[in-house]
Write a structure and sequence with these properties.
The protein is 59% helix and 0% strand. It is globular. The chain has 6 helices and no strands. It has one domain: lambda repressor-like DNA-binding domains (434 Repressor (Amino-terminal Domain)). It is mostly helical and 91 residues long.
Length: 91
C-alpha cells in the first residue's frame, strides 16, 4: 500500500469538504500562490500555516513536531526545487 503525500491527503480533504482553495486561503491567511505551489509539491509551508490549515479543515496534525520543523526548513525557497527521489537516494 502506497502512502499518500500530505498534498494528496489535503487535496482529498478539500474535495470531500467541498470548500474552495480560495476560501481556505481567506480563512487561513495563506496566499493563494503559496497554497497552490504547496499542493504541487513546489514549496513547503510554515508550521503555523500547516496548523491554520488543520484548524480550518477541522483536523489535528499528529505528526512529530521535530519532523514538521525539519520538513519546513528543507522546503525549497524561491528559485529552488525539491530533490528528486533519485537525488535523495544518492545521499
Amino acid at each position: 500500500m502506497q502512502t499518500m503525500t500530505i498534498q494528496e491527503q489535503l487535496r482529498r480533504l478539500i474535495d470531500d469538504a467541498g470548500i474552495s482553495r480560495h476560501r481556505i486561503c481567506r480563512l487561513t491567511g495563506i496566499r493563494t500562490t503559496n497554497l497552490s505551489q504547496f499542493m504541487q509539491g513546489k514549496r513547503g509551508l510554515s508550521l503555523e500555516a500547516l496548523d491554520e490549515l488543520g484548524r480550518v479543515m477541522g483536523i489535528t496534525l499528529k505528526a512529530d513536531r521535530a519532523l514538521l520543523k525539519k520538513l519546513a526548513e528543507e522546503a525549497p525557497r524561491p528559485g529552488r526545487r525539491w530533490p528528486s527521489k533519485e537525488e535523495k537516494d544518492g545521499e
